[in-house]
Write a structure and sequence with these properties.
The chain is α+β, with helices and mostly antiparallel strands and about 600 residues long. The protein has 3 domains: about 170 residues, Poly(a)-polymerase, middle domain, CATH 1.10.1410; about 160 residues, Beta Polymerase, domain 2 (2-Layer Sandwich); about 210 residues, Poly(A) polymerase predicted RNA binding domain (Alpha-Beta Plaits, 2-Layer Sandwich), CATH 3.30.70.590. Helices cover about 40% and strands about 15% of the residues. Strand 9 and strand 10 form a beta hairpin. The C terminus is likely disordered.
Length: about 600
């Protein structure tokens, strides 16, 4: 099966891109029901991906405790600021809004998985300010709570938030301010209606609230909520194991994957989850991503025009469609923003590769050659590339030493530093894809951090870019080796880490290019659980085939041995390029106080 290549097929996909299109309304077979039961058992028992009822009760209790803290904080500020909640400003006897904490994301969609965090929005009345009160007093209150760990404020982003672990559960808290302190209905009822747009005066609050509205709209758009939830669990496990689940790193985040699944549920309203999963890969393998949008609700242009006039704080790219993206997955509520805006050319290539791989595996499953488990095996990232850009984000020790068996703890400074680097990796990916390097190298960023137990560092994590020569540019001898100049890109990347950021002391970064044999064995083992089950037996031939497909990139390990701190060496690298892609960059960051 090939992606859409002729005009008729493209026209069909264009029709399918319309919201609520139905391609097949027939019902699934008994075999599909059996496959669904098997898949549910597999992801729950074999992959340990689904939360238990006890886990769900625990998270529910945690949310109630956090909501109590939020309500108490709002009440405290009401008293401190002498807010009069019984003034003539409330002639209709509306109720005073005491603030609330509402979940969205996978928790709101009830797609519970064991490793999922809880996304929430802290919604407050108009006298509570984001910088002064949310990032000020509330952050201080949370920092003094002994059940809170890994607390960090992320302010310089599209949607500012507080991240933390509360009772060992990862929770993200977004902030939304209403322009009133009195409500005629519950906040849940208002958010589910169009009235919410009359109560918001800033874009960041709208974006935060839309997290809740998007999840509600998705659940309303699918014909069978249970089938949607089960299918989404399969897709989430698959995407995470293939290393393509991360909005931050330029792949797709949870909402994008949910919209993609919801679209398939609309096309096949009566299919069982196992059949929906099969169609998920069949359709999106053939999708024309840069030409066609994925949407599950049509955009009413008249309603859109009214909102544009009302919400005049919105930026143009949100409303005029002028900005071009590699993928277009539209959220199902105003302003119909593209949830896949962060996808780059490099990451789209990996997403399409895994869609194609899934189609091949599904064909073998239908033939009885492989088990469903093969579809969900982790992508063996290190086995598929020949060289790696290794990014080591670390915190140096400050004279102290760890006792034996003492666990490293990520403090606030390191979490902030890690967040700064992670937020910029997508920019590095864009640089690499627009550079000439991308014409003869396949490049892939693995989105998950690998941890290190380096005793010489207080904290240390790694990210990796995989590199391999494209088949049409195989390098055979030293004489015809390509000149690959990474230095300008890496230098720009590090300079931008320093620009405008307050980098805590003892924080540093080291970027090097290494071959497979120099990767920490611990990191390789984390991804080496591929079993390649064929009729219940391990197929060594398939493993060997993958090893042989790893291209060979000529390198000279002793090419550079000098320090990279000298201006002359920097100039040489800039003018000549790094022969055979070997470079090593170790640069101390300036500490800004």
């Amino acid at each position: 099966m090939e992606p859409a290549q002729n005009e008729d097929e493209f026209k069909l996909l264009r029709v399918l891109s319309s919201a609520h299109s139905i391609l097949d309304s027939s019902f699934s077979s008994k075999n599909d029901e059996d496959d669904t039961l098997y898949l549910n058992h597999m992801i729950s028992d074999d992959f340990k991906f689904i939360e238990t009822s006890q886990d769900l009760r625990y998270k529910s209790e945690i949310l109630l405790k956090l909501k109590y803290i939020i309500r108490k904080w709002v009440s405290s500020l009401t008293d401190t600021l002498n807010i009069n909640i019984n003034t003539n400003e409330n002639p209709d006897k509306m109720k005073f809004f005491k603030g609330d904490l509402l979940p969205f994301g996978s928790y709101k969609l009830q797609c519970y998985t064991r490793d999922s965090d809880i996304d929430t929005v802290c919604i407050v009345p108009n006298f509570i300010k984001r910088e002064e009160h949310f990032f000020g007093l509330l952050f201080e209150i949370l920092s003094q709570n002994n059940k809170v760990n890994d607390l960090i404020a992320i302010k310089e982003t599209t949607v500012p938030l507080i991240k933390m672990k509360f009772y060992d559960v990862q929770i993200d808290i977004l902030f939304a301010q209403l322009n009133t302190m009195f409500l005629e209905q519950s906040i849940e009822e208002i958010i589910s209606s169009e009235k919410i747009y009359n109560l918001i005066d800033d874009e960041k609050s709208l974006t935060s609230i839309n997290g809740i509205r998007t999840c509600s709209a998705i659940l309303k758009a699918v014909p069978n909520v249970n089938n949607f939830q089960e299918t989404l669990k399969y897709v989430k496990l698959w995407a995470k194991n293939k290393g393509i689940y991360s909005n931050l790193m330029g792949y797709l985040g949870g909402i994008s994957w949910a919209i993609l699944v919801a679209k398939i549920c609309q096309l096949y309203p009566n299919y069982k989850p196992s059949k929906l999963l099969e169609r998920f890969f069949m359709i999106y393998y053939r999708w024309e991503w840069e030409e066609l949008s994925v949407k599950i609700e049509e955009i009413d242009e008249n309603v859109k025009a009214q909102y544009i006039l009302k919400l005049n704080f919105l930026k143009d790219p949100w409303i005029d469609g002028s900005e071009k993206y590699f993928m277009n997955i539209l959220i199902p509520c105003f302003p119909f923003k593209n949830s896949s805006y962060s996808v780059t050319g490099i990451t789209l290539k990996m997403i399409k590769y895994h869609f194609e791989e899934a189609v091949v595996i599904l064909s073998k499953i239908k033939q009885g050659l492989v088990d469903w488990k093969v579809l969900f095996e982790k992508y063996n990232f290190f086995m598929n590339f020949t060289k790696f850009i290794k990014i080591n984000i670390h915190e140096k020790k400050n004279g102290e030493t760890l006792e034996k068996n003492e666990k490293k703890v990520e403090n606030e400074d390191f979490l902030k530093w890690k967040g700064i680097v992670e937020s910029k990796l997508r920019k590095l990916s864009k640089l690499l894809e627009t550079n000439i390097i991308n014409t003869f190298l396949d490049i892939c960023l693995y989105p998950t951090a690998f941890y290190s137990n380096d005793k010489n560092l207080k904290n240390s994590i790694f990210y990796y870019y995989g590199l391999r020569i494209k088949p049409s540019y195989v390098v055979e001898t030293h004489e015809n080796s390509k000149f690959i100049n990474f230095m300008p890109l890496i230098s720009w990347f590090i300079e931008n880490l320093e620009r405008g950021e307050r980098i805590p002391q003892q924080m540093s970064i080291e970027i090097t290019l290494v071959k497979y044999s120099k990767i920490e064995k611990k990191h390789i083992r984390e991804l080496e659980n591929n079993r390649f089950l064929i009729n219940g037996f391990q197929n060594k031939m398939m493993k060997n085939q993958i090893k042989n497909e790893r291209g060979k990139l000529y390198y000279d390990n002793d090419y550079f041995k000098k320090s990279f701190y000298s201006d002359k060496m920097m100039n040489d690298l800039g003018d000549v390029g790094v022969q055979n892609s070997i470079f090593s960059l170790k640069k101390k960051l300036k500490h800004i106080f």
